[in-house]
Amino acid sequence: MALWTGRIPFKLAVAAWCGIILIACMCRKPRLSRLQLWWVVAAFAMSMVGDYFLSSRKWHAHYFEAGIAAFFTAHLGFLRYALAHGRINTGALAVVLLVFVPYFVLGLSPAIENRTLWAAVLLYLLVSCIGLAAALGLKQPRPAKWLYFAGIALIVFSDTLISLGEFLHYRRLNFLILPTYYAAHIAITASILARPELSRIFGGPTDDNAPAG
Questions:
Q1: Distance CA 1, CA 9 (A)
Q2: DSSP state of 32
Q3: How far lies 68's CA from each of 55, 174, 184, 196, 205, in Å?
Q4: What is the pLDDT of residues 45-84, one digit of tens each?
Q5: What sign for the dihedral angle of Cα 134, 167, 116, 72?
Q6: Interaxial angle between packed helices 8-28 and 177-193, expressed in degrees from 0 to 180 and rounded to the nearest 10
Q7: CA–CA gap between residue 111 and residue 193 (Å, rounded)
Q8: 37-43: long-range contacts (C-beta < 8 A, 24 or more apart)?
């Protein structure tokens, strides 16, 4: 419905339902709160805030910057969850910085005249790179790890398409922005549900003394 209608309530509902699913799991089994799932729920909430600002920015001068700030905070939530269950993959961080820093310096920077926006985009780019490297360093069984990495990678991909359209006026791939953004939230939620601790809720073997990961 979010893709079909483009209406803000349906757009916000994607991240909202992902957060509600995780909250429901924690309510059913309170010990799951030790998995730092609240950071992901908070990230989904901030994604909703960012989506609202970007979807409503047509008549508001600073909604774009506000949206970047909200999504920056969302990335911090996703990053905090990843670091609670893993580490930053330094090799991956070097690779993504090698790709995105030149992209910013040579492509985006000359096209951004507003210094506040310039700084906001740079900080957002850096936290996105760190978050992607942390997702790759997540210490989880294969399905959970790669679903989480795919989710963060899809966010980075979607954001890159936004930057191409907003600053470099390349909009041929704009049709992929929202599908990949929504798929990212679904993949992150699926990653958490694929954790052994969560799968036990849905009929798998139970072992409350199992490590949190």
A1: 10
A2: G
A3: 12, 18, 17, 34, 42
A4: 999 999 999 988 877 778 999 999 999 999 999 999 999 9
A5: negative
A6: 10
A7: 41
A8: 37/81, 37/192, 39/77, 39/78, 39/80, 39/81, 39/84, 40/77, 40/78, 40/81, 40/188, 40/192, 42/77, 43/73, 43/74, 43/75, 43/76, 43/77, 43/78, 43/81
Query: What torsion, rounded to 10 degrees, do the Cα atoms 153, 33, 44, 111 define?
Result: -50
Please give the single-letter amino acid code of residue 52: Y
Q: By the 8 A CB rule, do 137 and 82 touch?
A: yes
Per-residue model confidence as pLDDT tens digits over 86-106: 999 999 999 999 999 999 999
CB 177 within 8 A of CB 158: yes
pTM of the model: 0.90
Phi and psi at residue 114, in whole multiples of 5°? -75, 120
Give the residue carrying structure tokens 């709160």. Answer: 33
Crossing angle, helix 90-102 and helix 115-136, to 10 degrees? 150
Report the candidate in 194, 195, 192 with the shortest Cα–Cα distance to residue 38. 192
CA 20/CA 109 separation, integer angstroms: 38
Q: With contact defined as beta carbons under 8 Å apart, do 33 and 26 qualify?
A: yes
d(CA 124, CA 140): 26
Largest CA distance in the chain: 57
Residues in the chain: 213
